[in-house]
Structures are given as C-alpha cells and as structure tokens.
Amino acid sequence: MLYNELPTQWQRIFELEWESLCMGSKAIAAVITDENGGIISEARNMTGESHIPNPKTAHAETEAVRNLDIDCYPNKWNYTLYSGLEPCVMCMGTLVMGGIRKVEIAARDDFGGAIDLLTANDFLKNKNVQVVWHGELLGDIQRGLQTMRELLFNTDRDKLGRMLKDFSVYNKRGVDAAIKLVDDGFFDGKQPAYYTAEEAVNEILNIISD
Questions:
Q1: What residue spans of the chain are helical by DSSP H?
Q2: pTM for the complete prediction?
C-alpha cells in the first residue's frame, strides 16, 4: 500500500495534517463528503497557530462543520464526516448539532475521544449517528503523523512520553515507525515542509510493511 492507493478523502486528510504539522499544530484533519463521495468541506487543526484569537478551539472537526456551506449543501444529514482521530467532546457536540449523522474515523483515542457519548447521552442517542471505525493501517498513519509532530515540537518530555504511550494503545506500529524516522535522521537539517505529505506517509508505510 502506498499513499496514492489510499481513498481520496484520506489522502486529503493526511495532506491537511501534514500542513498542520508544518505549522506546529496538531496533525489532525477532517473532511465532509456529500452523497457521492465528493469533498464539500475540510479543515485542519490550527491549535498551534497564533494568527487565530483563540487557537485552542480550532479543532479540525469543529472547523469542518463550521465551514460547511449549508446554502449550497443543505442535505447535511446525508453527508459523512471523515476524521483522522476520534473526535473530542467539543467536536462531537459540534458535528451532532451541525446535522452530521455519519462519521468515519481512522484512529481511536481512549484519552480524549468522545464517541462513547453517543450511547451515554439520551439526546445524542436520538440522533442515530452512524460510526465506522477503519482498519489498523489508517490508524497507524494517523498516529505516525501525530508522533512526528510531538517529537519535533513538544518540549515537555514527560508529557511527550505520556502521549506516545496513549498513541500506542491501538497503533504502536505507526508510533514506532515515526520514532524510527526521526531517530534515523529523516528531519536532520530539514524542516518538515521540505517533504510532502505523500513522502512522509510513504516512509511510514514502508517501515510498517517491512
């Protein structure tokens, strides 16, 4: 499996995540597709960028729902939100209130994920949101990109250790691949923007497939 063999929506998610990583933000992104699979809204995490008045709320899923032009695309109940990482509490509330009823996710997040709310809250139960979890490969790519970001930008080593432990619960292959890339000098003398998302993802995939 190579990057160009991934479904288009996932290619776009990982492109956006790489852009976020290059900007110092979290490597998380989301897209919304219409009934025919065409991308009609997209967003990336921007929590590390100072040009936003309150960047801490600039989460990918929240921004993707906010960016959806419902005048042009009014059939929101029939659309699907694809997310690299399990949505948090804020993002879950936004996508439900925004009318999204189908969600597909690459990686689980036991620490900050909020999918369990769909069965724990009567209001959310009544919305009948359909959730699809994707296989290990997409999750490994997701966690691999997140690991790269933390290794490059996280200066709190204790927090870094806790995060990588959390990332490894379901997707240790992706975490280990990213650690190997960094340790082997993939970024030595180079900023992340030197590479494309395709190059970074293919490196992760090559290590995973060895």
A1: 8-22, 60-67, 89-97, 117-120, 122-125, 136-153, 157-183, 197-209
A2: 0.96
